[in-house]
Amino acid sequence: MGKYTDAFRNYILAAVNNPSFPPKRGSVDHSTAGGKFLYNLFRAGEIHPIKGLLAEIVGNAIISHHSYLEDFLSPELESNYLKRVRDKRDKSLEEFERTHIY
């Protein structure tokens, strides 16, 4: 979903058209949208434990796909995963939802 936006398209076109001076790698967040989508789809309302856990595992894989799987647990039980998929505003997902029916 994050790759299906004007921002990511412009990022790729800039990289192709200016190979000597491409945009900064990672300057367009294309992974949060997928993680947020799964969180919103499977964690809203009454949570089915298996579906909620699976959504978090797959969401972690989406968010971490250019690096290693993140350890989102902490002794304080604060989750950076939840901060990212629940609290972070993501223009990519908003654009996708505004322009597509799913």
TrEMBL record:
<keyword id="KW-0051">Antiviral defense</keyword>
<feature type="domain" description="HD Cas3-type">
    <location>
        <begin position="1"/>
        <end position="102"/>
    </location>
</feature>
<keyword id="KW-0378">Hydrolase</keyword>
<dbReference type="InterPro" id="IPR038257">
    <property type="entry name" value="CRISPR-assoc_Cas3_HD_sf"/>
</dbReference>
<protein>
    <recommendedName>
        <fullName>HD Cas3-type domain-containing protein</fullName>
    </recommendedName>
</protein>
<dbReference type="InterPro" id="IPR006483">
    <property type="entry name" value="CRISPR-assoc_Cas3_HD"/>
</dbReference>
<keyword id="KW-0479">Metal-binding</keyword>
